[in-house]
Write a structure and sequence with these properties.
The protein is mainly alpha-helical and 139 residues long. Helices cover 71% and strands 4% of the residues. It is built from two helices and two strands. Helix 1 packs antiparallel against helix 2. The longest helix is centred in the last third of the chain and has 54 residues. It is rod-shaped and about 90 Å long. The N terminus is likely disordered.
Length: 139
């Protein structure tokens, strides 16, 4: 945060002139939400095949058991299927968390737009030029 501040002569911090605008904040939040939504869908799609693979490996282990394959080989297949299932569970949890975060970012963007949009519009439509952002700093 201190890198976003400059010192005024009296030592009171003021925001730099290149401070984010209402529009840039809303766009950044919405874009981040969209990127996380896409990432969550990608994780789901990639790991969906892992779930199918785990089921296939379990079926193979079951078939081996019926055909009297040695116990160590069968156990190895069941273990591999369990590991794949664990990876799938972890990936699903990650995708759910990403989707949740995506929703929160999108919601925050909308909330910011509702709360500060009218202020930003009033500033844009002012008949006079605004002072530098530091003038409006509240700290």
């Amino acid at each position: 945060m201190s890198s976003d501040l400059v010192q005024r002569p009296l030592g009171t911090p003021a925001l730099k002139a290149d401070t984010p605008t209402h529009g840039s904040v809303v766009r950044a939040l919405a874009a981040a939400g969209e990127r996380l939504r896409i990432l969550a869908e990608t994780v789901d799609a990639i790991y969906e095949s892992v779930g199918g693979g785990a089921e296939d490996v379990t079926r193979l282990a079951d078939q081996m058991a019926r055909e009297d394959v040695d116990a160590d080989t069968i156990a190895g297949y069941y273990e591999a299927a369990d590991l794949m299932g664990g990876a799938l569970d972890a990936a699903n949890a990650m995708a759910d968390a990403l989707a949740d975060l995506s929703g929160q970012l999108t919601s925050t963007a909308e909330q910011h737009r509702r709360e500060y949009g009218p202020v930003a519009e009033a500033v844009r439509s002012m008949p006079v030029q605004m002072a530098k952002p530091g003038f409006y700093a509240t700290h």
